[in-house]
Design a protein that fits this description.
about 90 residues, about 45% helix, three-stranded parallel beta sheet, Rossmann fold, alpha/beta, 3 helices
Length: about 90
């Protein structure tokens, strides 16, 4: 059973999205019609991941990729502001 927050049109921010579980989650959510913001500390890997997520995305999804270090609180504040400007409220 899926969580009620995981529906088309909602927005999720996924950290560590350049590989592994983060990338798989981003692809799944985008395929479901969710808007996703993917972030990772490694720019080149994140660019490749963004291509994969866009390929998997439904036509109703939007994908935003931002290189960021989650251990830097100022960067996370900027990330949150950018995501809210782009998508509005975020599910998680």
């Amino acid at each position: 059973m899926m969580h009620s927050a995981l529906v088309a049109g909602r927005t999720a921010v996924i950290t560590g999205a350049a590989s592994g579980i983060g990338l798989a989650t981003a692809k799944k959510f985008a395929a479901m019609g969710m808007n996703v913001c993917i972030t990772d500390i490694t720019d080149l890997a994140l660019q490749a991941a963004a291509h994969e997520v866009n390929e998997a995305a439904s036509p109703n999804s939007s994908v935003l990729s931002i290189t960021a270090d989650v251990s830097d609180s100022d960067t996370m504040i900027t990330l949150a502001e950018t995501v809210r400007q782009e998508f509005g409220d975020v599910v998680f």
